[in-house]
Amino acid sequence: MELLEISLLTLAGFIAGFIDSIAGGGALILVPALLFAGYSPQLALGTEKYVSTVGTLAALYNFAKDKRVVWSLVGVGVVFAVVGAFIGAQVILLFDTNTIGKIITFLVPLGLAVTLLPKKQKRDSDQIDLKSKKILFGAPALCFVIGFYDGFFGPGTGSMLVLGFHLLLRLGLVEASATSKVFNLASNVGALIAFVWTGNILYLVGIPMLLANIAGNYVGSKVALRGGAKVVRGALVGSLVILFGSLLFKYVF
Fold it and tell me: Is the whole model's pTM more than 0.85, yes or no?
């Protein structure tokens, strides 16, 4: 049973990396997989951060190599993402197991609603005015709020980052996805520090999941560069629906 469990969690790691690299939402696979394996929400969230933090590097490598990352935006809000994630991770550790499960279940429909929001037209990244008040104040605020959400909850963070950059700056979805990886990585690091500090990570279980997640991120980012985010948007909605149903059954009924 332990071998089967590790094999299934490793498969979940690959699928999560694939989805996360294109449109975000890999935690929608990892967190419920760890929960159904019998681990507490704290360990599930901590281990997910351990796996996804390193896995994201593979996707970021491909996007950066293809010059899809808008690096000029990174310095505007990356620190805010880290601080928000660290604070969020500290807050979530104050709740008991059952309460955390119910909070996660309640937040899933919000993630689904954000995913289905209508998108604005693409705006060329070289037309972004980094000195505008909208960017100077809006981007840090967006990064802090989503960073806090990432540390507190996690699933759907990548999607929210993509949508935030897409709606706020009107970047193309591929560019928004590529740039969001830097912020997602930063917020993951902030939350990971808190989980490492409190000992809420399953390292032995996480290692094979991490390796599979790296592979999934690498393959998925290649698919995103070739075909865009349209195909995976549908997969992301499906993942949200599955997550909501599974957590609803586990923590509500």
Answer: no
